[in-house]
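User: I'm putting together a teaching handout on how multi-component assemblies are represented. Below are the sequence lines for each component of a complex, exactly as they appear in our records. Could you produce the 3D structure of the whole assembly as structure tokens, so the students can see both representations side by side? Please keep the chain order the same as the input.
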Amino acid sequence: MAVLEARNLKISVQDKVILHDVNVAFTEGKRTAIIGPNGAGKSTLLKALSFVNPKYDGEVLLDGVNIREIGRKKISQRVAILPQAPVAPPDVTVGQLVDFGRFPYRSFIKASDPKADREAVEWALDRTHLHDFRDRRVMALSGGERQRAWIAMALAQQPEILLLDEPTTYLDIGHQLEVMNIVEDINRDYKMTVIMVLHDINHALQYADELVVIKNHGVFAQGTPKEILNVKLLADVFGVRADIFKNSQGISVLSPVSLVNRD
Amino acid sequence: MLIIFAVLVAAGFFTSVMMGSVRIPFQEIYDALFGAGAGTHQQIIWNIRLPRTIVAALVGINLSLSGAILQAIMKNPLADPHIIGISSGAGLTGIMVMLMLPGHEYLVTPAAFVGAMAAAICIYILAWKNGIRPVRIILAGVAVSAFLGAGISALMIFYSDKVHGALMWMVGGLAARSWPHVDIIYPYTIIGIVLAFLGAKHLNILQLGDEIAKGLGLNVEVTRIVMTAIAAMLAASAVSVVGLLGFVGLIIPHATRLLVGSDYRFLLPGSALLGAAVVMLSDTFARTAFAPTELPVGILMAVLGAPFFLFLLRREL
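Assistant: Of course. Below is the structure of the complete assembly, with chains in the same order as your input.
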């Protein structure tokens, strides 16, 4: 069942076409990775799917309903997005940041529900192992802790769908796995749909149920890693000749060997 | 911290009423304010000192709030209604009404608001290219400010016979400000405070950047326009009363940010209190330090503010 779907999506920025004829559906409760070369339009797709960028042609459907008809705050209660390298004011603490995730539930007129807010914040801190960091300043944390704090903010939105834009960039290999494990656990425990742009294809192989490959402003391939990820695809999409083999856990990993001579 | 600021406001208030060519003891001020006093001192307090002090406080509040709001919506630590030309816009249209439509003084503030808003929109249009960049806003603001300043100067030369105290007005001063000026500014201060405080939560979200703010369901464009209008209104009402008083909107929100943090639910009331206290005290100092010559408070603010601006420029950009 497709929980989020793009139909005939076309996005241009200053008369330059970034994406066109994009038709893609994301399955409920699954982890989907979007991969593709730099500048292919992966982040752009994520912004359209979350209505952060509403300047697109075509349709984005959330549970079959056009998101243009849903309203910004209502969307944010159901879809959370974490962009790349976000920046907070220097004195914002982890606790405050996570509390900002409750903004979609607050309004001018209606007072928010403090109990629900508190519970959501506690839950988000819990899931990201940040209870002891509540009073620490976000921008003073290490890269891995900071990324967890931003993920906690997105979780406090209590979304059905979590969109992540390269959540492991700038992190060392240990913190990368830590972040990916948090995402995996949330997806498993709460059936939260996760859609993430991933830089590292090995992460996609290890953590994604489904792949969407973007190339040349459109969807190049879509399916499970087993179905679509092979040597030919890597050569076609990234121009890389790679070996693919199984690791000790039986998960496919790839090791790039050389550039394919492009014509 | 806010309590300390409130104490500072009270101190500023009494100092300002007390100090001057005639020094009035605290007891007499108290008596005069609460109805029991009589004589010359009471006349001085009610007709001269008190209204001037109130105008100083309200101007301080308006400019500080305006600056604090602009810093959030322009994502720019250097934003200040004076520096980026919003005050000049208010000044130009305000002066136009003063000079060309004599007898319609009630139109000055609305006209100033229109000018301030137009200047703000100009700056956005000039600075907008794939989003807002702090440096571009400052540069666009400098250009807009210079352009509008030229208009103000030209008007003052053409109508030099009609402009009383033009020089005072250009640097921003509180000389001879009295009850009519209080009446001009206070409704805007009240409306501005209420609207700004209502928007505090939204400004907090906006500080996280446009993408995060949109992801949290904030209508970034509408928030920005509404908050710009509030900032412009606050600045315009201040300009209509004291002229082009600079740097208050820059220094105060920054000092407050250092002391209470960047949460706008505290930053806005903090800025308002500190702004009121600082302008009252600065004006008291400016009019008494070189007595009998009275210095416009704008000169003092510029002497303090320009180095502070350079300090921020080196630290933040």
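A couple of points students might notice: The longest strand of chain A covers residues 2-13. The CA atoms of residues 181 and 207 of chain A lie 9 Å apart.
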